[in-house]
């Protein structure tokens, strides 16, 4: 009897997996719905959801002042004051493709619950794809704490609760790397184009990838990216002819309103001219370091190139580009890549190091947040949160740099995700 059941499951494996996914998605959405009913938030999602509904139902530009005031009234009960989050609709018009299915739902709480579920599955996919990209045969002793850290650390949980777009764009970036490894150039170009929905945190990633693709003559990826982007822009022009100008204005305003944004900007705010000089020094040094690593990595083999991608992402947080700590979940692939190299280098001793790092980051970030917290998640972000996650990721990647350059034991053969018992 048991054998018959197992045979039936094997024959209809896809159907059973689809049913299991649908059941898990439904249950998780119901749980999220109960949560959001008693916990306000999700304002990053609300801004884009409301702007998309504003256009779809009323036919008016989501970049307009009226739309922004409606969002501010929902969040604050009034217009935002100077120094408060302004909630700009700062995605390109074609970004509404992602939000349109949710914008068709009139109830914000239901839409937010569904969006949270999608983000949770996306975050899980980020972890699994990162592990596979790193060729990591991970054991359960590390996998379970890694999952807990990814979902419940400050950066993971805040991105989920605020409905941050950085989660899907990070998944798109990992999709690009995976597609390139599998020689799926068309898919890589398509996904690279969709990163432009929220390009600021991944600006340096985009530049490095384009340079590497051009230098290594993977032009099919570039043409697919340009073609996809062109189609998306053309589609947007049909809807609102001057949308690009409106988008650029709101993107600049939104970018300038990010607080805290980078170590340099904090130094300028606190120490004036002295802070400005130190900020310039930091930006120049980090910029030179990035150029040096790009010079080494643009034509390098896959391990070195992948390390360069990860260190580029990590260094971008200190490069002078304004990136909110709420978006630091995009550092997860980089730190996972570093952890895998730890395990290859130090074997059994690596587990203790990895678990200690995860525990340190988990505790220190929450201590910083709770010591400065406020009712509004965004206004409770301390500038000290700009330090632990990025600095730790950078240290780990440079600590393992020798292993990437000198070791010949890294296997580049495609592997399935393997979970080993300790």
Question: Keywords for this structure?
Answer:
422 residues, mainly alpha, 72% helix
Characterise the protein shown here.
With 422 residues, the chain is mainly α. 72% of the residues lie in helices and 1% in strands. The chain is built from 19 helices and two strands. The chain has a two-stranded parallel sheet with strand order 1-2. It starts with a helix and ends with a strand. About 4% of the residues have low confidence.
Structural class: mainly alpha
Portion in helices: over 70%
Mean pLDDT equals: 86
- The helix-strand sequence is HHHHHHEHHHHHHHHHHHHHE
- Count of separate DSSP helical elements: 19
Q: Within the largest sheet, what's the order of strands?
A: 1-2
Q: How far from one another are the termini?
A: 34 Å
Number of strands: 2
Tell me the Rg in angstroms: 22 Å
Bulk shape: globular
Strand count, sense and closure of the main sheet?
2 strands, parallel
How would you concisely characterize the structure shown here?
The chain is mainly alpha-helical and 422 residues long. The chain has helices at residues 2-11, 13-38, 43-58, 65-76, 96-103, 108-133, 140-152, 154-162, 166-181, 185-194, 203-215, 219-239, 243-256, 263-297, 302-316, 332-346, 348-372, 388-399, 401-406, and strands at 137-139, 418-420.
């Amino acid at each position: 009897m048991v054998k018959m059941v197992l045979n039936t499951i094997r024959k209809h494996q896809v159907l059973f997996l689809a049913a299991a996914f649908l059941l898990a998605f439904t249950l998780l959405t119901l749980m999220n719905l109960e949560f959001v009913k008693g916990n306000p938030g999700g304002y990053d999602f609300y801004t884009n959801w409301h702007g998309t509904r504003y256009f779809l139902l009323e036919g008016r530009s989501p970049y307009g002042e009226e739309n922004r005031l409606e969002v501010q009234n929902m969040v604050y009960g009034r217009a935002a004051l100077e120094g408060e989050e302004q909630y700009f609709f700062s995605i390109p018009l074609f970004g509404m493709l992602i939000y349109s299915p949710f914008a068709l739902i009139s109830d914000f709480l239901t839409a937010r619950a569904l969006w949270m579920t999608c983000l949770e599955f996306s975050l899980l996919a980020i972890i699994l794809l990162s592990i596979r990209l790193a060729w990591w045969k991970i054991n359960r002793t590390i996998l379970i704490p890694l999952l807990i850290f990814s979902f419940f650390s400050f950066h993971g949980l805040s991105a989920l609760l605020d409905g941050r777009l950085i989660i899907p764009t990070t998944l798109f970036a990992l999709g690009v790397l995976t597609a390139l490894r599998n020689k799926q150039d068309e898919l890589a170009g398509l996904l690279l184009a969709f990163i432009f929905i929220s390009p600021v945190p991944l600006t340096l990633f985009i530049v490095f990838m384009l340079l590497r693709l051009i230098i290594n003559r993977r032009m099919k990826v570039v043409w697919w990216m340009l073609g996809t982007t062109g189609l998306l822009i053309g589609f947007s022009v049909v809807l609102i002819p001057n949308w690009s100008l409106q988008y650029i204005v709101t993107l600049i305003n939104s970018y300038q309103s990010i607080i805290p944004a980078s170590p340099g900007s904090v130094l300028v705010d606190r120490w004036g001219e002295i802070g400005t000089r130190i900020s310039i020094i930091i930006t120049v040094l980090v910029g030179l370091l990035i150029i040096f690593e790009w010079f080494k990595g643009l034509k390098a083999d896959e391990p070195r190139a992948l390390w360069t991608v990860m260190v580029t992402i990590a260094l971008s947080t200190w490069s002078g580009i304004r990136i909110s700590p709420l978006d630091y979940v995009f550092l997860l692939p980089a730190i996972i890549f570093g952890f895998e190299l730890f395990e290859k280098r130090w074997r059994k001793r690596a587990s203790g190091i990895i678990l200690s790092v995860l525990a340190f980051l988990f505790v220190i970030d929450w201590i910083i947040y709770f010591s400065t917290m406020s009712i509004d998640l965004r206004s409770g972000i301390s500038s000290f949160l700009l330090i632990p996650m990025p600095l730790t990721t950078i240290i780990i990647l440079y600590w393992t740099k020798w292993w990437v350059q000198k070791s010949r034991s890294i296997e580049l053969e495609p592997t399935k995700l393997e979970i080993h018992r300790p």
